[in-house]
Amino acid sequence: MKVAALQMVSGMDLRENLAAARGLLEEGAAAGAELAVLPEYFCLLGARDTDKLAIQEPFGAGPIQDFLARAARELGLWIVGGTLPITAGGERVRNTALVFDPRGACVARYDKIHLFRFDNGSERFDEARVLERGSDPVLFTLTARDGRAWRVGLSVCYDLRFPELYRAYAGQGAELLLVPSAFTHTTGQAHWATLLRARAIENLAYVLAPAQGGLHANGRRTWGHSMLVDPWGTVLAEQAEGAACVLGELEVERLAQARRQLPALEHRLL
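Structure (tokenized):
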């Protein structure tokens, strides 16, 4: 199955971001992708953390969700909307990944569980000021055009640092792990590729990680390097910076071969 990690450099205008996302989705569909995954905050990277409150939507209704459903239906794609702000109540929102099938139906929702906090003296982030954390891991089944069913585990950005989440997915049969992200340049340069490859190797699963990648209108710089990693930890496709459609293929036999050669998932004690 061909898949696409869509790398963006989202700005502060919702309409412009959705137009850019649509262009990348169309590129992925034209190239034969069956699954296309947008990055975290594909719809908006504002000047302030609180800017996302202005575009929040109740789950099940709103222009961003309508955009994703329409694109999935018109392009015949499975689409994961990296994240968008879903109303939680009060002054916080959920940072939510939504999955739409090729009919345009929303078939899965994952709310980011681990909220990023970082302070190195010059860069400071604390997502808990605006976000309400999720609590539940979410897997869904994606049926490809050839009829093969893939078990897919959802996560977002900072979740990547918590291997127990992915181990839980592996225990439930996950074969593909999705990590839409907006890693900072500082933390991405240090840890991004290492963590992605580790999650693939540990769980003998494909990892598809679309990211924000470049200098944004708000002055923030994200790491990018969207990639597809195979179950052996090999990077199959990657884009350093800039908007791009990063294409790769999931091979059933490659997955089976890796798990057959090294049956580590069968050797777990916990």
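The chain has a mean pLDDT of 97. The domain at 2-267 is CATH 3.60.110.10 (Nitrilase/N-carbamoyl-D-aminoacid amidohydrolase).
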